[in-house]
UniProtKB/TrEMBL annotation:
A biological process term (GO) from this entry: protein K6-linked ubiquitination
Classification via SMART domains: ANK
ANK repeat boundaries on the chain: 91-123, 126-158, 159-191
InterPro entries: Ankyrin_rpt, Ankyrin_rpt-contain_sf
Gene3D superfamilies to which the protein is assigned, alphabetical: Ankyrin repeat-containing domain (1.25.40.20)
Record's keyword terms, sorted: ANK repeat, Repeat
An MF annotation (GO) of this entry: ubiquitin-protein transferase activity
Database matches in Pfam families: Ank, Ank_2
Matching PROSITE patterns: ANK_REP_REGION, ANK_REPEAT
Region (Disordered): 189-213
Name of the molecule in the record: Ankyrin repeat-containing protein
Amino acid sequence: MKAILESIQKGETDYLASRLSSNPELAKEKTESGIYLIQFAAYCKNQQAIDILKEYLSDLTLHESACIGELDGIKNTLSKNPELINDFSADGFTPLGLASYFGHIELVRLLLTHGAIPNIPSNNSFRVTPLHSACAISNYEIAERLLKNGAEVNAKQQNGVTPLHSAAHHGKKELVKLLLKYGADPNAKMDNGKSPMDLGRESGFPDLFEDLE
């Protein structure tokens, strides 16, 4: 398994394809942290590995579908097991959290329509909400959708980071403007005492909050 994981991390998919060809059941294996290989490939941003693994998987779990943007997979699972909508993955993330992190806006819309709760933090040390994830990847559309559905704009994740801290760190003025519109606190302090304004300045965006306060 170690060799397979390393090949996925490095983008060397020939080895993965060869192993699966001789032993298709490997596609259903899990990592030490309990996630399936296709979710691991998504974390590694290895689309080729994802495509190869999909050929050997007749059914995807809700969390696998959320990671790779499989709208039909989400619909199929929820039609059979709607109670899974807010379940945690083996590494502690809800389907909505994963869909937000991977930038799948259509999945985010679908999950919210089916009752996904936007303010459930991850069940791990990160304590990230879907809004944190959307801001971490600077996805305005997903952030806006979550906020319109009641996402807590000043939620704090590990180290006291708020969504506005992330947006400021990346210098995304329109996203900063959106968060402020929904009541984000520009003076919120991380555990180290730094505010979103501080992070903006440190990241090379000293004028980020001008005309927005």
